[in-house]
Structures are given as structure tokens and as C-alpha cells.
Design brief:
about 0% strand; 7 helices; mainly alpha; globular; single chain
């Protein structure tokens, strides 16, 4: 991801609009803030449902946004990251864009046809487990980006582990805990998105994202 790193000027102050080398050399704007915002909003909506907050709602508020925002917008961000020659960002955004589109299609086409008790939740367990495996090596690679991006993948990793455990066991309290962790993941992703927007502008407003944990 080409979310901007923290940079220090000769006078010891943060440069408010310094972009990474990849973003500076690219003819297009940094797509990472869009991808992160799309991921954050959709994650927030689904996690709020898992946490049991949507008691007076349908619980399906996430579904359309999984297709249009978390899905299509994030997938587009991934394609633009390919244009930026950013392998990490392209892989992350395209994969999680595909995740949201696939989850929405599963919810619309497969889940209503579940015959056996807990069959749908076990499906979700396998889906989330598969993405937890993917997220594990992306978490390791995120150590080379910056602290904010690493925080997104770290909170997401914990969320996915708790959720697939809850889905496999059918434990509603564990799923609810996963919902709370998902809300935290969304907040971290929103912050990282906001930092990318602020640090990519020419104004004085900037937000710290930290240095890579491993150079």
C-alpha cells in the first residue's frame, strides 16, 4: 500500500505532503485511501451486526455495500495499485474486494438454500478461515509498510481468528466478540485512510502513520 510514510524535514519537523517514492513516481493518485475507506465502512456495517448492535434494523445493511463499495471500489483500488507497481497494495485490495463480493453473493445465493442446521455458519467459518490464512502472510509483509497499515492487518487477523472460531462452534458470544474486534479493525482502517488523504495533500494537516517495523 502506498499510504504515505512519516517523513522528517531537516529542521526536525514532519513534512506534511511528502509521499512515498512509489506514489511520487506514479502518474495517478494514491488509491490506498479509497481502498482502506471501502474496507473500513463495509467491515463496520457487518461487524456492527455481528456485535448485536442492529437490533432495530434488518441486519443486511452491509450487503449492498459489500458489492458496491467494499467489493467494486476496493477491487478498483487494487487494479490501480497494479498500475502503481505496488504488489502488496494490489494483492491486498483486490483480494479483499473479491472477499466482499464473494461474501455478498454467498449471502444472496447460497445461504438461503442451507438445509442442515449450522450449515451456513460453518460455511462462514471456512470462508473466514481461508482469508485468515491469506491475512497471516499479508500481516508479515505489512511490517515493511508502516505501523498504521500493520495495525489494520493485525486487528483484522485477530478478528478473523475469533470469528471463524465462533462460526465453527456456533458460539454466539464468540461471534459477538468478533463483531467488536471488527469494529476496532474498521476504526484503524478509517484512520489509515484519513492519514493517506491528509498526507497526500499539499496542506499543513497531516496524520502520523509510523515507520516500517522491518526495513
Amino acid at each position: 500500500m502506498s499510504v504515505n510514510d512519516d517523513r522528517i524535514t531537516a529542521a526536525g519537523e514532519r513534512a506534511p505532503a511528502v509521499q512515498t517514492a512509489a506514489a511520487a513516481a506514479s502518474p495517478i493518485a494514491d488509491p490506498a485511501p479509497l481502498g482502506l475507506a471501502a474496507f473500513a465502512l463495509t467491515t463496520f456495517l457487518l461487524s456492527a451486526f455481528n456485535a448485536g448492535w442492529m437490533t432495530r434494523a434488518t441486519g443486511d445493511a452491509w450487503l449492498g455495500y459489500a458489492l458496491a463499495y467494499g467489493g467494486v471500489a476496493q477491487l478498483l483500488a487494487g487494479m490501480w495499485e497494479f498500475r502503481n507497481k505496488n504488489v502488496f497494495g494490489a494483492t491486498a485490495f483486490a483480494s479483499y474486494g473479491g472477499f466482499w463480493i464473494g461474501l455478498a453473493l454467498w449471502s444472496l445465493l447460497v445461504a438461503p438454500k442451507a438445509v442442515f442446521p449450522l450449515a451456513a455458519t460453518h460455511d462462514l467459518g471456512w470462508i473466514v478461515l481461508a482469508f485468515a490464512i491469506f491475512n497471516t502472510y499479508m500481516l508479515l509483509m505489512a511490517t515493511q509498510v508502516n505501523v498504521a497499515v500493520f495495525g489494520v492487518f493485525l486487528t483484522l487477523e485477530v478478528t478473523e481468528i475469533v470469528l471463524f472460531s465462533g462460526f465453527f462452534t456456533g458460539n454466539t458470544d464468540t461471534i459477538k466478540a468478533g463483531g467488536y474486534l471488527g469494529v476496532l479493525t474498521a476504526l484503524v482502517a478509517w484512520y489509515t485512510s484519513a492519514a493517506g488523504v491528509a498526507n497526500g495533500q499539499t496542506g499543513r494537516l497531516s496524520l502520523p502513520v509510523g515507520k516500517p517495523l522491518i526495513n
